[in-house]
Amino acid sequence: MAGATCFRLLVTILLLAMAGRCYSQQMDHIQLSRIAASINNLTEVVQAQAVASEKVASGIMKMLTLMATDHLVCERGWFKLRSSCYFISKDTSTWEGSRQKCIALNSDLVKITHDDEFNFLRDLAKGHHTYIGLSDIQEEGTYRWAADGTIHQIVESWWRKGEPNNQDGLEDCIYYHSSNTGLNDAACLLKFRYICEKPAHLGWNFASVLDEETPTEK
Fold first, then answer.
1. What are the record keywords, sorted (predicted)?
2. 104 C-beta neighbours (distance < 10 Å), count
3. Per the confidence metrics, is the pTM higher than 0.85?
4. Mind listing the pLDDT tens digit for each residue in 136-158?
5. Predicted confidence band at 185 (pLDDT cuts at 50, 70, 90)?
6. CATH number at residue 143
7. Domain assignment of residue 196, yes or no
8. Is the peptide bond before 215 cis (omega within 30 degrees of 0)?
9. Does residue 137 sit in the same domain as residue 160?
10. Are strands 130-139 and 193-199 parallel, antiparallel or unpaired?
11. Which terminus in the chain has less CB density within 10 A, N or C?
């Protein structure tokens, strides 16, 4: 009788232990689920803050760029449009000679990228044949900008009627026609005026403000 009682007691203890273990496992699972959910929520918050910070930083950079553009300047004798400076020569030279003179001025023959720039330079060159940094010297019919080698897709409104025509197979270099009617191609050994281009730089007062606000290592 005592043995049976002990056996039942032992079974009861084992069942209680198993039940307790199952309960503990369920609680552990619940806790782990809650922890995982908290981690996911925290991750989403961090990611959202990162995106917001990136947008703020982007906005600040755009604002600084606009502010800086307003404070960009050119050297005496150069003309400014947006973030570029342009030099219109008084002397004449061949196309390659013109480019070398621009390089000597820490610039290059101009690369035109938009209509405003085209019109601005056309007005500056008015009355004189004036070289720009465009030619098809490397490959006939493929016009490249000297400054970076990129291919120019013909913008018909920039050209004189019927141009470029490579008359007599000798016209590889591009210039503003003196009639103010647009671009034309010519033999590269002809001597014309030329337009150089280089980036504008910050005026001393704006640059000094940036220097003062930039922390330096000690």
1. Disulfide bond, Lectin, Signal
2. 9
3. no
4. 999 999 999 999 999 999 899 99
5. very high
6. 3.10.100.10
7. yes
8. no
9. yes
10. parallel
11. C
Residue in this structure with the two tokens 């209680």, named with its chain if needed: 16
Do 130 and 192 contact (CB within 8 A), yes or no? yes
Q: How many domains does the chain have?
A: 2
- Cα radius of gyration rounded to whole Å, the chain: 37
Residue 29 covered by a domain: no
Quick check: helix, strand or coil at residue 145?
strand
Domain range enclosing 51: 38-71
Name the amino acid, one letter, at 33.
S
What does the pLDDT average to over 28-35?
64
Q: 3-class SS at 99?
A: helix
